Fold this protein.
Amino acid sequence: MSGTPNPNPNQRPVRQIRGPQSALTDFLASHNINANQIRQDANARRAAALASQQAANGGGDDDEDDDADDNTNSPSAEPEPVPTRGRKETKAQMSKRKKEEEKAIAKIKASKQFKRRRRQYGSDEEMSDEDEAARAIFEESMAPLPDQMENCEICDKRFTVTPYSRKGDDGGLLCPRCTKELDKEEGAAKKKRKTAAGRQRRQLQSNLLDGIYPGAKNLMTLCIETLAKNVDQAEDLGDLPVAMIDRLAAILAKKRLLKPSTLNLFLRPGFDTVTVYDGSYLSANDYTRIFQYCPTVKRLRLKNAVQFKNVVMDHLLATNIQLESFSIHGANLIDDERWDRFLTEKSAELRALKVYHTDGHFGDEQLKLLGEKCLELKRLKISHNQKVTDAGIKHIAKLTNLQHLSIEVYKPTSSQPYVEVLNSVGPGLRTFCLGRVNLVDDSVLVAINQNCQNLTKLRITDNEVLTDDGFSKLFTNWYNPPLTYIDLHKCRHIDAADPRENPSNIGLGSQGFEALMNHSGMHLRYLDINSCRHISLESFERVFGGDKKYLDLKEINLSFCQAVNDFVVGCIFRSCPNLKTLIVFGNFGVRDVRVPRGKILIGVPTALGMQIEGTEDGEGRVI
């Protein structure tokens, strides 16, 4: 598209609008009757009659011979055009048709519609030649209608015209066979460009999810990605550093390339750490092979370990392996009896235990056994559990050496078990995470304020009971150092009958948000207050306005906070100079923001795109 402005902005653009066809028009089209064709045939007959009359008078042949001699002797004479409609014409008929075409083209050039189109395009290259533009309009008007018969421009085969018939280079139409052949020749390049663009866009989205921001990659990243593409040819990883091996394993898992054939690359005798980021393709024998190849393993992390079942746990219990850290995800085929044996026989050196998605296994009995056998446990995470209840959570209070605690269970739980746990292990906790605690009240916030003085990470999500006053009291006069990670998403009032009103100040509101930023804002790195929609615009302006600076903030999620608008986003970019990502899904007040260079704005609800990367001029580039 050309950037030339319209010289007459008040002039409405020309639109070719065709009304419905009458029954007579449809009938004529179905019987291959075209008014334009009839007119051309009539003109041809008249020209033929005139030519025969001139030939009878004896003047036609001399003129034709003279014209032929002139055309033959003239070096600049153009060859006679070949008829493209599949109809044989005499020279007299062709001359007559050309004169009719010239008259029609001259009439088009003199029409008001053509002049308006010239003024609309101005000096655009598409309308730079009047003759070409007028001839294009003439050929378009003379084109046969759908359901009529026409001769192919290339193979001269007769076919039925459709609305999708392709136009040839000389103005004629192409049959379906010739159209298909041309599409094969030209479509490969177009499809390749389109596919490449889509692949590049998806790769950019994937990199953002992995925390890889746009820009040049370092040499180590390029080497790891090259190795991942050719992993089938690798026999051994040699003396690669552990960090590089871990990064390679993550890339292979993301591309679903971690299979039994490639698992051996990450198993070495003497390794004390084994990580499988995606064990979907591994069988029970493959998991058993991990303990056979790495008998010295101390830290084992398995994700999507569906086939890690009783037979594998029996093999582990039969070995002398003593794990210090065990993280397993999706192993829902291990029964409670095996878990009891593992916690009893392998708890001597166990310091960290993370259990995800065990469905109907690993419940209150196993937590009770933890409190009796694993007294040296420092990290415990139970996520997406369907069996743990209040009775099991109370046993966690016996683990007095805990430093990291994360609980997310599906069954409803009350506040009292969490208060008992905080009263017991709260002073030593460094991270405390509660997920899907719908019924927990402000007593838990009071227990956190009174018992926790060493926290760096706090997460409480999916709650509809905690109040804004409770959050304000938590962060006011709290002896805990400033937090670096805070996630309070979906702590909000829920009422389908009147969702905007919040008379009881349920959830994180303006007062609690300001207290949070006053306490931890200077050292905060990650903030997620997604769906905390009762924070006011004035509160956002007070927190991020003025001369306030939050130098450590790297990522903020303000999705579905209704008060967020263009001004708030601009204040955030000014007050957080080191911010990398700002997420604003569902905030329709964000429409036109100048994104600084090196920052990414995700979730702008416009038709341009959902992700905008800042550039040097501050305009932003749609990703």
